[in-house]
């Protein structure tokens, strides 16, 4: 391992362990005093951490950028202030010299680039952490976009994956996070999704798949690819002359209708979800081009996700289960999708869903005073922390894509009615789906009509729930006090073990850097001992 890789691993691992220790110390100092002042201090801490992470990501690039974008989707495990700070994290980095790019092209083509191109632009068109795009003209006069992998990218990403493998191992062995998330699966999905960006042939396959599915979609275009000139590190595709779809001056200049563009773009995204298959996981304005005649062009299929037909049908069963109060069906579908791990407390989760649905139906959710709302939020927080509820990685990328996409839509049309646009298409889709081995038809329509009487039938149950609320609140306080005492018994010992572990890790890093073997061995033994002590504390 060279010094560059060792330095990257050290910076990334140290940043993660530092953040974890800060959070543990904060929780120790403020255990049982989660008042508005504490919330404000907590927000200050995580905002500071997010800024530090963002600075490190911009300095190091590589996987830190991608993981930062990934973490910005994980509302199930990351605080809102952390997400807000990372929202603007992009992978725009200074471009490398044109000579190095030409060297990559000629190595991949095993020939001078002039053998295939008349010209290659002097300036880079777009630059990111993995690839750079130049404009070229083929021998027959066809204009093409040439995406080239930055030199040294594979070595950087490989070192970063080693660092994150250690971080995942640490969190799995020594933190409660493993109880609420399938960390090995999460790491594997991250490698698959982000790692695929290193192979441009995978992007070519995805682009052609989108072309097959949406090539005839009205007003939509997918660029063609030149397979004979494309390799793992060089991708050649059709050049599209256009502007970002969020360029409102371009839209105004060419007299295009913003509302119609928003509707067409929304239906394009909706089709990716309903029919299963791949979806564009990075649909920001720069990856959606608009030509002068109003044609929408999707580009850059390096990051895609997959929604199967089974996933879509499970989503329909969740909606049906909520409507008809069949919460076992809801939990079964959530478990099938991977949102819920098998060892979850189903009765506790059913009760939480039931209470939330009741409050929503009776409008209590929007009329609660601050004390009751705080109790509800603390209940939900405890539920998330104690139960194996997770957002699967593939759905996290979908969540990021959806939020990014909705932002684009609202730039085009601030008054866009997403539900109004979706309703007729979703109903049409639902009627054609098999749910539980049968077709969604008259029987389901009858059940939906019967649901109209549900508020009256649920009145006795609501009254009983109201009478039971004081007992639930008392049980909640008892559970919270027991949790506080347990944390106070273990947190101090864990903190000392964590401090020794961090100090020995620093010593180990120094030993590796200066290649001092005795220092490496001593630090490694102390580190393993600290981790073992930390792990075995009850």
From TrEMBL:
Start and end residues of each Protein kinase domain: 119-477
Classification via Pfam families: ABC1 (PF03109)
GO MF entry, a single one: ATP binding
Domain of life: Bacteria
Alphabetized UniProt keyword annotations: Membrane, Transmembrane, Transmembrane helix
TM segment ranges: 495-514, 520-537
InterPro entries, A to Z: ABC1_dom, Kinase-like_dom_sf, Prot_kinase_dom, UbiB_kinase
Gene3D superfamilies: Transferase(Phosphotransferase) domain 1
Family membership noted in the UniProt record: Belongs to the protein kinase superfamily. ADCK protein kinase family.
Record-given protein name: ABC transporter
